[in-house]
Amino acid sequence: xxxxxxxxxxxxxxxxxxxxxxxxxxxxxxxxxxxxxxxxxxxxxxxxxxxxxxxxxxxxxxxxxxxxxxxxxxxxxxxxxxxxxxxxxxxxxxxxxxxxxxxx
Length: 104
Hints:
The chain is an alpha+beta fold. It has one helix at 84-99; strands at residues 6-15, 18-29, 32-36, 42-47, 52-54, 63-68, 71-76.
């Protein structure tokens, strides 16, 4: 089975109402989810199997929540230049596919 890949740039990453970066990157590569600054410095990473990712019902349509290593992050994918809802959906589907939970 080919490893699913996902990459989004221009992502605002927040932790506990504090902005860590306004133009960060979110990557799924080799079974790991990586949160990076705009300079490529790692904020956090974890195996996809240990990541919880979802779209909170109360959040804006361009946001997703991810929990890595016990840390909760809010990912604002609307800044990436794509349709915000489609970007969030692609992210959630990529996490599921990397775990093997995806449809099909």
